[in-house]
Design a protein that fits this description.
Layout lengths: L5 H74 L60
Length: 139
């Protein structure tokens, strides 16, 4: 952790034995160990407090961002009411008469059964892409 090797720790222990003596060295080692433990606990408590504050700040920031997003979505709804309504090109055109049932049997067309393609009246047709006016609605 501090880059202290075993030989350096042994040297510090020998110097402490010479300075303190054999009677006071165990008490000094115990006291040093208690102080180191207290420092570790206080550093861990400070670290947890900072992490808790950072987490609370992140939660506040996230709630603030969600609030801004909801306000932005409400503003879009107010400014663009046409997004809520389907455009005339998207609305399906329903025929006035029900469609005949289609059978799964294959029938070969004969000259008498072939007819010209049916076109819809111009009033119910979808407007051209370049025409900005909407098509009249059927009653």
């Amino acid at each position: 952790m501090f880059g202290i090797s075993f030989s350096e720790l042994l040297l510090v222990g020998l110097v402490a034995l010479l300075v303190l003596g054999p009677e006071r060295l165990p008490g000094a080692a115990r006291t040093a160990g208690l102080w180191v433990g207290r420092l570790k606990r206080s550093f861990n408590a400070i670290k947890q407090e900072v992490e808790r504050e950072i987490g609370a700040d992140e939660i506040r920031r996230q709630l603030h961002n969600e609030h801004i997003l909801s306000l932005e979505q409400e503003a879009r709804k107010i400014l663009n009411p046409l997004q809520q309504q389907p455009t005339p090109a998207e609305t399906p055109i329903t025929p006035a008469t029900p469609a005949p049932a289609v059978s799964t049997a294959t029938v070969e067309p004969t000259p008498a059964t072939v007819s010209a393609p049916v076109t819809e009246p111009a009033a119910t047709a979808a407007p051209a892409p370049h025409d900005p006016t909407p098509a009249p609605r059927a009653p």
